[in-house]
Prior knowledge:
Number of strands of chain A: 8
Largest sheet of chain A: 8 strands, parallel, barrel
Order of helices and strands of chain A: EHHEHEHEHEHEHEHEHH
Structural class of chain A: alpha/beta
Strand order of the largest sheet of chain A: 1-2-3-4-5-6-7-8
Low-confidence stretches of chain A: none
Helix content of chain A: 40-55%
Shape of chain A: globular
Mean pLDDT of chain A: 96
Oligomer: homodimer
Distance between the termini of chain A: 31 Å
CATH architecture of chain A: Alpha-Beta Barrel
CATH topology of chain A: TIM Barrel
CATH class of chain A: Alpha Beta
Amino acid sequence: MKPDFDLSLYLVLDPDMCGGHAAALRTADLATRNGVTVVQLRAPEWKKRAWLALAIELKALLAPRGVPLIINDHVDIALAADADGVHVGQKDLPPEVVRQLIGPDKLLGLSASSLADLRGADTAVVDYVGVGPVFPTGTKKDANPVLGVAKLAELMAEKSLPVVAIGGIGIAQAAEVIAAGVDGVAVVSAICAAADAAAASVQLTAAIAGAREVAA
Amino acid sequence: MKPDFDLSLYLVLDPDMCGGHAAALRTADLATRNGVTVVQLRAPEWKKRAWLALAIELKALLAPRGVPLIINDHVDIALAADADGVHVGQKDLPPEVVRQLIGPDKLLGLSASSLADLRGADTAVVDYVGVGPVFPTGTKKDANPVLGVAKLAELMAEKSLPVVAIGGIGIAQAAEVIAAGVDGVAVVSAICAAADAAAASVQLTAAIAGAREVAA
């Protein structure tokens, strides 16, 4: 059965930004004790043996907490680590191919940076969409043009799947992004590069909850 | 059932070196009409959607010729394209993990650059070993130290699996490499960067056959 998932605070874990394998595990531990609801492992520069070792340890850490582990791009690593899902971009394996490989019980996320991408997400195949970059970001080398919050809100009027917003979102931006109509915010450096990953997670969680109260 | 395979002349197809998707298909076509016995697709800089598109076309080209298509590193692409096998290095997914993902009917190759690597290749899991680099090469950025032909011959005394030698092997080197006791030679630039891929394949095939006659 497909796991329940809550996109509220979605950590894209960059193990290099965290300081390596052990530091990434520590960050994931602190983050998920303090509000992070999903962890995606993304290490585009890593060889797969190192990816797999970290994915297996993350899975063991997160499963008892009910926090899904998503693997970026590499379906083979997701399968080998029995991760909870895969996240792909528009140039990665097509979602329908990924779905065939992972079966019906795993989560599948797709990145979208335009209305065309958003409309192209097959709701029978994809479980959620990551929309961005909302703000400028230095994390992703091949990022698309920045959307901005107004454009994000426009896109949200068209959404047919849960959406997590990504790209340059920190504590100061989380509330306005939530107000634009997304289901959650994805962060990389706001937690991975934070001096205190626990405190950053708490503050992000509070910002998201506050924005939802205002909207309700 | 696992396909028969003949390592004699093993083309590692670098689509960028060939000149892109269409040029890589052309190279594979000419090469396999002129003696190449295995094709491995290796495009470490490519996104997976482009990999998959090329892998599917290569499979359609090569299958009727009985030439196995091997995918470097990415088990997910091999599964999606129904390729004939996967080739992994020492830092890629461990062979036993790959074998679980691909099942018993696909080929699995492992790179080795030392006696320890060679002895570490589980003959119940791995089908062949790629040993190198024999000579200096500019193709692989993270290549191990050069073995040389004498060291290669030493290693061959220890082999328990079919071996294809790789690294800086061109028409001038093929014969001495075969004489060192390997089952075949793998080339990248000797065909991908050749002015005439067909002629290069014919000459390599002749060099290999000639060296075998001498040895016999």
